[in-house]
Amino acid sequence: MPFARPAVMGVLNVTPDSFSDGGAFLEPPAAIAHALRMRSDGADLVDVGGESTRPGARPVPADEELRRVMPVIEGLADAGIPLSIDTSKATVAGAATRAGAVLVNDVTALRGDPGMAAVVAGSGAELCLMHMRGDPATMQDDPRYGDVVSEVRAFLEQRLGFAVAEGIPEERVWLDPGIGFGKTLAHNLELLRRLDEIVAVGRPVVVGVSRKRFLGALTGRAEADRVAGGVAANVLAYQRGAHMFRVHDVAQTRDALAVAAATVGPAADMEME
Ligand code: HH2
Fold first, then answer.
1. Phi, psi of 100 (to 5 degrees)
2. CA of 209 to the centre of ligand 1 (A)
3. Residue 10 forms beta bridges with which residues?
4. Could you tell me which residues come within 8 angstroms of residue 53 by beta carbon, excluding any fewer than 6 positions away?
5. Are 104 and 98 within 8 A, CB to CB?
6. Active site residue 203
7. 6 cis-preceded (ω within 30 degrees of 0)
8. For atom 10 of ligand 1, which residue has the closest CA?
9. Which of 39, 212, 226, 254 is catalytic?
10. What is the pTM of this model?
11. Ligand 1 centroid – CA 30 distance (Å)
């Protein structure tokens, strides 16, 4: 396990249209400066993405995605920043891991590109498999589940089995319930409330709640003002066993998790022995 719990993954969207920071980091110098700031704020790794997956987003061609992310990845790898690549394309994952990315964050869970599993297997990188209902263009059109937690868990177990069958060692796989990806407010809250059932699969769990729409629905706040709501959700997810937290607001999340870990985490357990 390359990252101790709790680990913080800082979000770096090199896109014009991401839902909360679209356009802010399109130029490599601005993106690199922001990543260095997140690192000094306590990010364990920086997740670089060149394609928005917000509800309604349109796919980006591979050459455009490469053009956006590679100068940033190369600059950050040179600076020694641990990197993750947020992509569903094998060519992008291949280029990023060759440049030094240590984790492939695939929101399609190896369903988006038939070449992805082989690239990840050959790269030696970690892999995050995320649950998504449908695709970003349509995923928020009336999503329905019988029991959302059982269905997400069964999906993640199936995708984990697929990854292992494709030659990716189980020890390298992370699982993510995909908060906001084809889910209503009630679905997102049920997944967070019963996150221990996803943790029980036995692989480390990543959660991405940062600035998302469900926080706006609960607080009435715009994206940039959802930090406190996100911190609350991340602390609750930590308590239920989540390992890694994907966030835009690294410093605040790091502080909250330090307090949570000291209170209910392994350090607190050890002191009681
Ligand atoms: N959420 C987003 C993107 N990638 N990856 C994982 N593993 N888990 C998530 O919850 C997750 C993700 C969406 O957030 P963001 O990157 O801020 O926005 P956009 O997709 O518009 O770029």
1. 125, -5
2. 9
3. 46, 247
4. 107, 132, 136, 181
5. no
6. no
7. yes
8. 208
9. 212
10. 0.96
11. 20
In contact, 9 and 210? CB cutoff 8 Å: no
- Region of 56 (left: φ > 0; alpha: ψ -120 to 50; beta: rest) is left
Q: Is 54 a catalytic residue?
A: no
62-118 pLDDT, tens digit each: 999 999 999 999 999 999 999 999 999 999 999 999 999 999 999 999 999 999 999
Per 3-state DSSP, the chain is made up of helix, strand and coil in percentages (nearest 5) of 45, 15, 40
The structure tokens listed for 230 are: 């996100």
What is the CA(212)–ligand 1 centre distance, in A? Answer: 9
Q: Kindly provide the b/e burial profile for residues 84-121, where b requires at least 16 CB atoms within 10 angstroms of the residue's own CB.
A: bbbbbbbbbbbbbbebbbbbbbbbbbbebbeebbebbb
Question: How buried is 165 (Cβ within 10 angstroms: 0-12 exposed, 13-18 middle, 19+ buried)?
Answer: exposed
- Which of these, 236, 233, 183, 240, lies nearest to 208 by C-alpha position? 233
Residue with tokens 């706006």: 216
Nearest-5° Cα angle at 131, 129 to 135 = 110
Q: Determine the residue of 86, 188, 223 to mutate for testing ligand 1's pocket, defined as the one with the most ligand atoms within 8 A of the Cβ atom.
A: 86
